[in-house]
Design brief:
The protein has about 325 residues and is α+β, with helices and mostly antiparallel strands. Helix content is about 45%, strand content about 15%. The chain contains 13 helices and six strands. A six-stranded mixed β-sheet has the order 2-1-6-5-4-3. A hairpin with a 2-residue loop joins strand 4 and strand 5 (about 295-305). About 40% of the residues are buried.
Length: about 325
């Protein structure tokens, strides 16, 4: 995991974390031109900063972890500083290629780490800005439900699917990024599309529908209306809780409305110390549960036929740091 002192790529607000460790110090005298002192460094910095939010989004969609995506950006920067910029025709494509390769290596490491993870693993939630929700394709691709589907793909399949379906890269660019032939990439895309189509949530769900379902869920929890919870949860609803062995959470998925409804109603036991508030997570409406004013749990859902079919609760405190300020995501 990244140290808390590292600056966060893709976030808004002033940087109070100290010097930027993912790029050179640009606070010195201004230099211009490739032959001027520091001119090449300035050009490299400008290109990296211009595409930084995009690169973070690529890494996050491949990893489901903002902390690891930050590490990938640092590794990308270090390699970018060694590139002869004059020989690069398309800086965006070149940076995406470096990021993809670094993320692939990190993804394989993460898979081994998840084998020993305590309880269900959920993606790290991101507090996102309204413009993410406005880009429907982007919001869908970073939703909790979709990121969990992407977890079922092999690393190369995930990289190829994300680059093609989300970022619309050409087959030639993807082939360069993953070290495969274009013919192989086309086959991988076809296979990954079928895999995702068979597992992704059925039907398109608008932000307004999600917001309405969450508001009904919040009211039912706050009033202790168990029958209302039975009415808004799908009969085969699945609850996943991620405490990471640090915070208390169910160690296995909980299935069925008869089990999940009483569990959700239990939030009321915290009384005035606990509160549910609406927010925007990974491009969709979500809820934050605060305990004594501090973020305790982030709750996201996915709907099917108007009912909550998936309920995702992230409690691992190591995954809640990106909920303090908005993260900018870009395609």
């Amino acid at each position: 995991m990244s140290e808390s002192s590292k600056p966060e790529a893709g976030t808004t607000g002033p940087d109070t974390t100290g010097p930027d460790t993912t790029g050179p110090d640009t606070t010195g005298p201004d230099t211009t031109g490739p032959d001027a002192p520091g001119g090449r460094a300035d050009a490299a910095t400008e290109a990296f900063v211009a595409h930084r939010n995009l690169l973070f989004t690529v890494a996050y969609e491949m990893l489901g972890s903002a902390a690891d995506a930050e590490d990938v950006l640092q590794e990308t920067w270090l390699r970018w500083t060694g590139v002869e910029l004059g020989a690069v025709r398309d800086q965006r494509a070149y940076l995406v290629r470096i990021t993809t390769r670094q993320a692939l290596g990190r993804l394989r490491t993460l898979r081994r780490r998840k084998e020993s993870y305590v309880g269900p693993w959920l993606p790290e939630p991101l507090l996102t800005s309204p413009d993410v929700a406005e880009d429907v394709a982007l919001a869908d691709s970073v939703s909790m439900a979709m990121l969990l589907v992407l977890e079922t793909l092999a690393p190369t399949e995930r990289a190829v699917f994300v680059l093609r379906e989300v970022f619309d890269l050409g087959y030639d660019e993807i082939a360069e990024a993953v070290g495969k032939s274009q013919a192989a990439v086309r086959q991988i895309v076809h296979r990954a599309r079928a895999h995702v189509a068979a597992r992704r949530p059925r039907g398109a769900v608008s932000a307004a529908e999600t917001r309405s379902a969450l508001e009904a869920f919040r009211r039912a929890v706050e009033t202790g209306d168990l029958q209302r919870l039975f009415d808004i949860l799908a009969p085969d609803v699945v609850f996943l809780g991620d405490g990471g062995g640090v915070a208390q959470a169910a160690l296995v998925p909980i299935r069925g409305v008869d089990e999940v409804a009483p569990l959700a109603a239990g939030l009321r036991r915290f009384g005035a110390a606990g509160s549910l508030e609406a927010t925007q997570v990974n491009g969709y409406p979500a809820l934050i549960f605060r305990l004594d004013g501090e973020i305790d749990t982030v709750i996201a859902v996915h709907l099917e036929d108007g009912l909550i079919a998936g309920l995702y609760a992230v409690r691992n405190p190591e995954k809640l740091s990106r909920m303090e300020r908005e993260t900018l995501l870009r395609r």
